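Try this one yourself first.
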């Protein structure tokens, strides 16, 4: 495997550790220890860390090292604001095209019932709906912007899935959005999406405040 291939494998493994909290926010990454644990040299590791930095999962501090990015109310609110703009723009694009067939979105909804038992499996199943929504409008610029957010959002979504009933609520709201799209009521679909994203935003805000003793 070439250096880029090794680096991508390292990206996937370290990203998962960050998202699941095995590498907690604020923790310092030591290159030697990390390269040994991953079984790779420091050259592909540094490329992997660069990629994760671009995903805003890592912070590079001069003369101090590399750290897992913090999680905060401000960061979450900013990410949600950008996500709202991207996904709303996707629905606007679908409306302009008059799209009515959404097989991939329906498959994503069906996946909710097959999401497995782990929190990561449930997170992947729920996020798939939003990924398929972006893909449906076939706009590579929106897709690139959405991809940049995905890893950072995943860390907060795991907090959301710790809330009882969260999976069921989101699955039901996804189906409501899909129904509006299939009926050609794009204004209602956009309204449903806005309500869904705002409910998730507020739920995660509460979880963050409780974690930091502010609730």
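Now uncover the answer:
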């Amino acid at each position: 495997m070439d250096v880029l291939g090794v680096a991508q494998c390292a990206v996937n493994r370290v990203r998962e550790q960050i998202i699941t909290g095995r590498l907690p926010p604020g923790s310092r990454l030591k290159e030697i220890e990390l390269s040994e644990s991953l079984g790779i040299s420091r050259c592909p590791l540094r490329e992997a860390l660069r990629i994760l930095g671009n995903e805003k999962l890592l912070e590079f501090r001069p003369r101090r090292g590399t750290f897992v990015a913090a999680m905060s109310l401000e960061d979450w609110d900013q990410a949600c604001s950008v996500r709202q703009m991207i996904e709303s723009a996707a629905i606007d694009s679908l409306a302009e095209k008059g799209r009515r067939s959404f097989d991939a979105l329906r498959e994503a909804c069906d996946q909710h019932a097959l999401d497995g038992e782990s929190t990561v499996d449930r997170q992947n199943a729920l996020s798939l709906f939003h990924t398929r929504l972006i893909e449906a409008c076939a706009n590579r610029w929106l897709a690139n912007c959405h991809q940049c957010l995905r890893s950072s959002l995943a860390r907060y979504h795991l907090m959301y899935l710790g809330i009882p009933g969260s999976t069921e609520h989101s699955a039901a709201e996804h189906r409501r959005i899909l129904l509006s799209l299939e009926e050609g009521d794009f204004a209602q679909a956009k309204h449903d999406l806005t309500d869904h994203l705002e409910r998730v935003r507020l739920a995660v805000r509460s979880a963050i405040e409780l974690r930091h003793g502010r609730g």
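Discussion: The radius of gyration is 18 Å. Residues 80 and 198 are 8 Å apart (CA to CA).
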